[in-house]
Amino acid sequence: MPKVKLTALAVARLTPPPKGQIDYFDTSMPSFGLRLSPKGTRTYFLMTRIHGRLSRLTLGQAKTSEDCPGLTLAEARAKAGEWADLAASGQDPRQLRQEEKAIAVAVASNTFETVAKRFMQQHAEPNLAASTCREYKRVLLGADTSAWKHRPVASITRADVRAVLDSMVERGSAGAANNTLAYLSKFFNWCAEKDLLEIPPTDRLKKPGPKNIGDRTLSASEIREVWDAFEHEGGTFGDLFKLLLLTGQRRGEVAGMRAREITYEGEEPIRWEIPKERTKNGRPHIVPLSPQAAAIIKDRKTIGDEGFLFSYTGKTPVSGFGKIKARVDVHITNKRKEADLPPLPAWDLHDLRRTMVTMMNEALRIPPHVVEACVNHVSGMAKAGVAGVYNKALYLEERKSAFAAWGTYWTHLWQGRATSPPPYHVTKKA
Fold first, then answer.
1. Topology of 3-101 in CATH?
2. pLDDT of residue 416
């Protein structure tokens, strides 16, 4: 085994043997050398003892020109020194290299898109409401994060997340940016729990936009105006919007109403039971129907195999709320112009739910825990935290009386009669 002073020039100029392989050991680092094959392949190696046994460790192919792959002589010497130190401490560099390769393969296979789909299947879909799953899917697999699609999830940085959020704020979607951060935080925390990354890139990131807490409620006169617009709209969305006000339930829950969820007494609808798969908090919810709400539901035809009450295709609930809401606003604005009134202050469909809750509390003096039960809230004092674990009361009779009182109060408002609230009285079953 010849010894030579290995230099970059010497490595490139060594003559390949006619057959077999020949090892050249470096005179300045005796355990380090170069193996040369008949075809001219040059491979750096290290001879060292691992657990007492002499072993040859292949460091990698030699780089003989600028456009060739491989290790330079300096890189090979540094690697040889590092591996010699590892061997001296009782570690096998070959095993460490295999582990590094396995980790690299795992990291490369755990792309953002792949892990996002796994998160949806393992966490979101089995545990969360359908509406929440749709939001996770929009955030994780939508346009805003599409640039991360093929990147390892562990490579996403705080700067990457901040860039996405800032872009959303710049286009005027500060509220959506705040929601996106919340969903991304949950996702990346889940990734950390699964050992897919060490520190979530959302850790300690502040919300990019001011929190938009809705506080708009409609006055008695405004309720009459919007109801008039719902009457003018008519049809599917006219009925849907009316039920948003009469039941106080969420838009997606009302839009997804199915015939099998309605209980009848004779020919009259008396109760709407929303399954847990369709509620935001994953809890089944019962809505006793006021006569006003029941009349609307009774006149609705079922559509498709699912029995949707609000659908055009029979396969999915209606969509396009923004377009119809804009049309409702145009009607209200035109009516106000005719009456020489200023435009109606901005409002959205969720304000209908808030209006019912507010008027149940303030005008009808319905106990707060009953109002919370009417809209399937678990954040009230009667249901929140530890109290919620023990307080499983459904307050069905109280809910029935509350919705009946609200329906009567709404009728008075709509007809322009005296708005003194009807009595809230609970008749317990004998």
1. Double Stranded RNA Binding Domain (3.30.160)
2. 74
